[in-house]
Amino acid sequence: MMTDERAEAPIVRGRVKWFDPAKGFGFILNDQGGADILLHANVLRNFGQSSIADNAQVVVSVQSTPRGVQAVEVIEIIPPETENRMVLSEDLGGVTLEVLAQLPLLPARVKWFDKGKGFGFANVFGKPEDIFVHIEILRRSGLADLAAGEAICLRVIAGKRGQMAVAVYCWDVAQQTQTSEGTPEAAGKEAENGDLRLVGRR
């Protein structure tokens, strides 16, 4: 029955107007116009994310309620185009996007993240080093905020200021992401035995 209901729900593409994890909801601007679409935190969590970046493109199935149109399922999230592409160019040291995409996913936990300051740190499981997480990297990954203790997966390089994340995935999403290096769990075992200063497939 649930499958039939989802199949009948209209599919809408839009852009995130804003989302506040503390309030537990936000709104999507429908690309076809009309009223804003309510996006509840529970619906987003079912997709595997606890937050979503403003201006991220999103595909959702919706339903009409007495209070307006609401998203009932998130189907796809496309990170927003960053307005400042050069903010981390020096730290990345000229590494191409193709190379970054080949880095293994490393399971990690958020140490702390301050959205106001624009950065925070995480620790890869089994490794004592802090991994720098910049808010622009978070936005490029389609996220808006991180909570202390949250389980995530990272792609990491050795930047000029130390170990830094170049991509951030929520744990549930990362488990579904197929990479040439294997699962996040396998990547974690590799991290325990190897070096995080990766710049490509070995």
TrEMBL record:
Signal peptide: none annotated. Residues 11-76, 105-170 form the CSD domain. Pfam families: CSD. GO terms for cellular component: cytosol. One of its GO terms (molecular function) is nucleic acid binding. It comes from the Bacteria. SMART domains: CSP. It comes from Paenirhodobacter populi. This is Cold shock domain-containing protein. Residues 179-202 are annotated as: Disordered. SUPFAM superfamilies: Nucleic acid-binding proteins (SSF50249).
